[in-house]
Amino acid sequence: MNNKMATMEMKKLILSMAFPIMISMLVQALYNIVDSIFIAHISQNALTAVSLAFPIQTIMIAFACGTAVGVNTLISRYLGEKKEKEAIQIASHGILLSLLNGLIFALFGIFGVKWFLSSYTSDPEIILLGQSYLRNCLLFSFSIFIQITYERIMQATGHSVYNMVMQGMGAIINIILDPILIFGLQMGVTGAAIATVTGQIIAMTIGIWITKYKIKEIEFTMKNFSLSFSMIKNIYEIGIPAILMQSLLSIMNLFMNSILVSFNVLAVSVFGIYFKISQFVYMPVNGINNAIIPVVSFNYGAKNKERIHQALKFSLFLSIVLMSMGTLLFQFFPDSLLFLFDANEELLKIGIPALRTISIGFIFSGISIIFCSILQATNKQNLSLLISLMRQIILLIPLVYVLMHTFGLETGWMAFPLSEGICMILCIVLYKKKGSAL
């Protein structure tokens, strides 16, 4: 694995690392979108309830992925430095942190869900539906935390292909159970939640088995585990920026829901639909992002700057191609995308211009994501976090508020491509100034 990171031709290396992760992340997106498609056929209130619950799910995934990115990066770095014992200890700490994070979100599922939903709506039906869905997802959140950690351990040791097995089985179970539980057993949104967590538990179990019997680079065992707060600190020095970057999506979603609900409750559903569909556009680029972090981190540890620059150039090319495809999809087929969610005439009236306008910024955002990955993997996490903050909070939310309250709902969507374009320019300027130091 070490030789591959150091010597394999960069295009081949990135594709071999990224493709399984892309498939894995695209499958992960199925969990949310399949639920929403079925839930949309229950009622408009059910779809609104799940849309309001979605930011909490995104924060949960952010904590899982951010912690796992810290684990992933350190395992890759230690293996690059030929420190196998330290790599094993990092993997062990990753599992422990996954269990603790799962416990925290389960407690929020018990005590905080009703308060959260009530802060956005007074409709008792929406609150009840949201509680039924979100509480079940959070109570069993340990499964997604452990699953994602094992995925990143596999990735860090060069075995990303196993991710497809884990995610694929989980998604298949979810897709099979959704119509059975939602409509066959008439469990509604509760059935959707149970289908999701069942798929995640099965994927987690497969991950544990694969790591124990197939991954030879790390002989994973808790027998030699020694709790180290310095290792936890090191994991979160890398992981917290990643958590914050992914949590920004949820924070942005929370702000957007607050702004949109004052215009039309259907606008909240439209944005929820956009958010779920856009995962299929962003997941491949995020897969590249997750693939190049260990590649760049390994070569950063090995002090091979040339391969870092090669990784950046090829990743930017892939990102532009993928995001261009996403832009074309949203520009030419917005109505088809909305019809997946049983859209009525009023929802189409709001949704079609929204999808077309927001997608103008896809290419800009893809470029920014790749630059942030390079910065994160080379100990420049603060710059990476700053760019992400500007993209999703500092620039975006004020622009949305001003444009929507000044020119109306439809014009307000222009805030997305405007903020993405500004941040892309900032990334290019920063790279020209600091690129030689990477």
Automatic annotation (TrEMBL):
Species this chain originates from: Floccifex porci
The name this protein goes by in its record: Probable multidrug resistance protein NorM
Membrane topology: Multi-pass membrane protein
General function of this protein: Multidrug efflux pump.
Superkingdom of the source species: Bacteria
Keywords on record: Antiport, Cell membrane, Ion transport, Membrane, Transmembrane, Transmembrane helix, Transport
One Gene Ontology term of the molecular function aspect: antiporter activity
Subcellular location: Cell membrane
One GO term describing the cellular component: plasma membrane
TM regions (residue ranges): 53-75, 95-113, 133-150, 162-183, 189-210, 254-275, 281-302, 314-334, 354-377, 389-407, 413-431
Listed GO biological process terms: monoatomic ion transport
Family under the similarity heading: Belongs to the multi antimicrobial extrusion (MATE) (TC 2.A.66.1) family.
